[in-house]
């Protein structure tokens, strides 16, 4: 078995992925727009998100997102809560976090080796949020599917999916975009080889 790594991110039109779920989720750096996703209860996109969570059999999270999830989901009920609470959870951290959420363990320092080991153990490994950690996965192309749910709002500040200094890379669209009735856009990309190329646009023949 060779499992697949799915990166799932909610983002604004200007690429902000910080604290979509609530005001207290991640107020770091004075971020004032926590919960920006809430005004868009898009059923089409919500169904797609729920389907992906229902199919996961492992979670791979950065430390901050793990702490947020561990403080929330064990106290919830329903299909999404059941899926997240029952799945094995792997945490990428350079420190020594207290991992009290049932089924949690910390990854070792050799990320490539650890990810390949997860692929041998699980079929559908999802990285949800974890924006800082995602930068490393994208740089090393340690992912198979990058799903961006792009919401029709501009915030002008906050942690971005692709911040200044992000590693240059090519990606390819895996399937047609899906648009929900509230204007939320679902885009799925996979890694593509090589460095970004440049050229000169000429007149059409």
From TrEMBL:
Record GO biological process: riboflavin biosynthetic process
Pfam families cross-referenced by the UniProt entry: RibD_C (PF01872)
Bacterial bifunctional deaminase-reductase C-terminal domain sequence ranges: 6-174
GO molecular function: 5-amino-6-(5-phosphoribosylamino)uracil reductase activity
This protein's name: Bacterial bifunctional deaminase-reductase C-terminal domain-containing protein
UniProt organism field: Microbacterium trichothecenolyticum
Lineage of origin: Bacteria, Bacillati, Actinomycetota, Actinomycetes, Micrococcales
């Amino acid at each position: 078995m060779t499992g697949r790594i799915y990166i799932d991110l909610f983002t604004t039109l200007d690429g902000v992925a910080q604290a979509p779920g609530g005001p207290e989720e991640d107020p770091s750096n004075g971020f004032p727009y926590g919960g920006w996703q809430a005004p868009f209860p898009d059923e089409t996109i919500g169904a797609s998100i729920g389907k992906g969570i229902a199919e996961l059999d492992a979670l791979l999270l950065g430390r901050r997102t793990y702490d947020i999830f561990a403080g929330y989901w064990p106290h919830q009920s329903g299909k999404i809560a059941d899926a997240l609470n029952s799945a094995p959870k792997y945490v990428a951290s350079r420190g020594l976090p207290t991992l009290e959420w049932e089924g949690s363990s910390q990854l070792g320092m050799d990320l490539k080796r650890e990810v390949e080991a997860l692929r041998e153990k699980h079929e559908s490994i999802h990285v949800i949020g974890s924006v800082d950690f995602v930068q490393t996965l994208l740089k090393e192309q340690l992912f198979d599917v990058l799903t961006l749910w792009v919401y029709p709002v501009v915030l002008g500040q906050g942690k971005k999916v692709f911040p200044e200094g992000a590693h240059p890379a090519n990606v390819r669209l895996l399937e047609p975009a899906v648009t929900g009735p509230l204007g939320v856009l679902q885009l799925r990309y996979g890694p593509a080889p090589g460095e970004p190329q440049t050229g000169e646009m000429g007149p059409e023949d």
